Amino acid sequence: MSRRLADLLREGAARLEAAGVEGAPRDARLLLAHVTGISAARLGAEMGAPAEAGWAEAFEAAITRRAAREPLSHITGKRLFYEHEFRVTPDVLDPRPETECLVRAALDLPWRSVLDLGTGSGAILLSLLAARREARGVGSDLSGAALDVARGNAARLGVEDRAEFLQSDWFASVGGRFDLIVSNPPYIAEAEMGALAPELGYEPRMALTDGACGLGAYRAICAGARAHLVPGGWLMVEIGWRQGADVAALMAGAGLGSVRILPDLDGRDRVVMGRAPA
Where, by residue number, does substrate bind (predicted)? Predict the structure, then answer.
């Protein structure tokens, strides 16, 4: 007798729960939607349908990967972030919901040009450009493979004509000045890496840690920001929730004013912003 989609979903969720995957029922449902091509929204109405040939095997393979704690986005190849779906690979950091706080805060400011340092998948830069049709931006990254992913995402969102990508170690290859500089740099201290969720072991290490105290990237960004901001331009960075005071001090020490720390939806420090002198 053919197995139903409901049977696959129940068995898959049980395997993920046994593996300690947080949100196992949700992940099992998303993986089932992925392998069947049925949207997650419509899947509930199809639970009584028999699984077509190949679906069970494909779903079990996907569940095995997720049970090994491979990120969901690496299995499906996509991630929802802010208002768009982005392609992601093991070459880029998986965009997190908390990073949307940086996007929302940036869209509260007036700007027409933006630089995204360490752009990765391009999620921050491209979300900003998609929301502000008159703006142009540059995304830089040390990883050529990450830049290839970002270029593809720019084309998918239809903003490739307004987005430039370049390989650079922070500001090293960046020219010109911008109204806004944004970044979600590696901020995890080396000493904290061993305690991270297993999923992070699949993501590029250089996007997670500076190999030291977690503040190295902020020192480089703050030191070069004023030379790449127009008068009155803004610098905005995502931070780890305990880094607010340290990063705010780095911005102030670099000559930026109006320094503020913004919380995420859980009330934890998440974004630090400062302004170049007018």
Answer: 184-187
